[in-house]
């Protein structure tokens, strides 16, 4: 093992080893995935529809289980006995923020997770204030979520996860349906966070902007793992795995 790989594994937020999974109907979604993500890394998970990305993500906090192989988060195995702690450590931000926001006010939505874990009083309020400040939404704490713009709701959804102080932040298509200003605001938030980020996206320029490293998942296996810029500039790789850059976009030309 080379020194760089050894260093990454010693500080890993996420380790996936030999993960294979078939759904009850017999469809094999993963065929033996190996993936290590170091603490503090921002990694884009790329691949065509049906590649197994969602199946992989749902194994990270135990929503799916029963396959072959192993998953651990900060050294803690994803297993039934550890699920409460694993689900605190792995926060998933869904594509539609309305799937996560259901309380009367923004503050109550952000407080829901830590309050359910037993946090109360001043400590709870401090946790909520910190999470909202991190996403630039502190002034909206008493607003009903449905009065916010879509981009603001997405940032509040991120805050609901940050309030749990996760080890890993998993984002499902974070830039989808955002206008250019909201897209930029979310990018600024994500760059500022001191957490490990795994970003599932078809938005390849956004992946390049935010994630120095990318992993291509295709037909249930890791097809490529490397610097995002280099993977996106590999025409043969992109074509083979049905990944498309916007017309005229040159990843090598992006500073």
From TrEMBL:
Database matches in Pfam families: ABC_tran (PF00005)
InterPro entries cross-referenced by the UniProt entry: AAA+_ATPase, ABC_transporter-like_ATP-bd, ABC_transporter-like_CS, ABC_transpr_CbiO/EcfA_su, Co_trans_ATP-bd, ECF_ABC_transporter_ATP-bd, P-loop_NTPase
Domain of life of the organism encoding this protein: Bacteria
Keyword match Transport: yes
Entry-linked SMART domains: AAA
Membrane topology: Peripheral membrane protein
Keyword annotations: ATP-binding, Cell membrane, Membrane, Nucleotide-binding, Translocase, Transport
Molecular function terms, GO-annotated: ATP binding
Compartments (UniProt record): Cell membrane
Main location: membrane
Domain ABC transporter intervals: 14-244
Entry annotated with the keyword Membrane: yes
Job description of the protein: Part of an ABC transporter complex. Responsible for energy coupling to the transport system.
Entry similarity comment: Belongs to the ABC transporter superfamily.
Protein name in the entry: ABC transporter ATP-binding protein
């Amino acid at each position: 093992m080379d020194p760089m790989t050894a260093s990454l594994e010693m500080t890993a937020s996420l380790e996936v080893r030999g993960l294979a999974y078939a759904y009850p109907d017999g469809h094999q979604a993963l065929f033996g995935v190996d993936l290590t993500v170091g603490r503090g890394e921002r990694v884009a998970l790329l691949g065509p529809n049906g590649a197994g990305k969602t199946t992989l993500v749902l194994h990270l906090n135990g929503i799916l289980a029963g396959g072959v192989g192993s998953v651990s988060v900060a050294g803690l195995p994803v297993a039934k006995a550890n699920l409460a702690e694993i689900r605190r450590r792995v926060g998933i931000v869904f594509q539609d923020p309305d799937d996560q926001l259901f309380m009367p006010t923004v503050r109550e939505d952000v407080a829901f997770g830590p309050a359910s874990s037993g946090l109360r009083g001043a400590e709870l309020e401090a946790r909520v204030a910190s999470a909202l400040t991190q996403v630039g939404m502190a002034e909206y704490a008493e607003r009903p979520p449905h009065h916010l713009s879509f981009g603001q709701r997405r940032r509040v959804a991120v805050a609901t996860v940050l309030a749990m102080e996760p080890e890993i932040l998993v984002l499902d298509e974070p830039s989808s349906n955002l206008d250019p200003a909201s897209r930029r605001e979310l990018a600024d938030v994500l760059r500022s966070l001191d957490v490990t980020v795994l970003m599932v996206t078809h938005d390849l320029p956004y992946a390049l902007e935010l994630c120095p490293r990318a992993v291509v998942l295709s037909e249930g296996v890791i097809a490529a793992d490397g610097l995002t810029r280099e993977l996106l500039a590999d025409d043969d790789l992109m074509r083979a795995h049905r990944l498309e850059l916007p017309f005229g976009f040159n990843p090598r030309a992006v500073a």
